[in-house]
Amino acid sequence: MNKNSILEYWLKSADNDYRTMQYLFKGKNYPWSLFIGHIVIEKLLKAYNAKYIDVNTPFIHDLLRIAEKAKLGLSEEQKNFLDTLTSFNI
User: Fold this and answer.
1) Which of 79, 18, 73 is nearest to 44 (CA)?
2) The pTM of the whole model exceeds 0.90
3) How many CB atoms lie within 10 A of CB 70?
4) Virtual torsion, Cα 87, 44, 31, 33, nearest 10 deg
5) What are 16-73's pLDDT values in tens digits?
6) What is the dihedral of CA 49, 19, 60, 76, to 10 degrees?
7) What are the residues whose beta carbons fall under 8 Å from the beta carbon of 65, sequence distance 6 or more?
8) Who has greater pLDDT, 90 or 45?
9) Rounded distance, CA 23 to CA 1, Å?
10) Which whole-number Å values give the CA distances from 63 to 2, 26, 60, 67, 86, in the listed order?
């Protein structure tokens, strides 16, 4: 796969999962909605990483670690948010 197809994969997959997250939220299935929300953010971070850093995205689920590998300059509040969101994957 080339860089564009990898990026397209992450973005289309994130978009599909986002729609699933919204469906679960509307159905008041909040735990699963949060779980899928984590996956959406993870895929978007991996898309960013693939586009700007390395197409070989990290095989991890920790959002903060992915953001750090993508060299995103995050505030402490953003870092705390990613840590909190990661807890919904566990």
Assistant:
1) 18
2) yes
3) 20
4) 170
5) 999 999 999 999 999 999 999 999 999 999 999 999 999 999 899 999 999 999 999 9
6) 70
7) 58
8) 45
9) 31
10) 24, 25, 8, 6, 6
CA distance 16 to 76: 30
Long-range contact set of residues 39-48: C-beta below 8 Å, sequence gap at least 24:
39/14, 39/89, 40/14, 41/82, 41/85, 42/66, 42/89, 43/10, 43/11, 43/13, 43/14, 43/17, 44/10, 44/11, 44/14, 45/70, 45/72, 46/10, 47/7, 47/10, 47/11, 47/14, 48/72
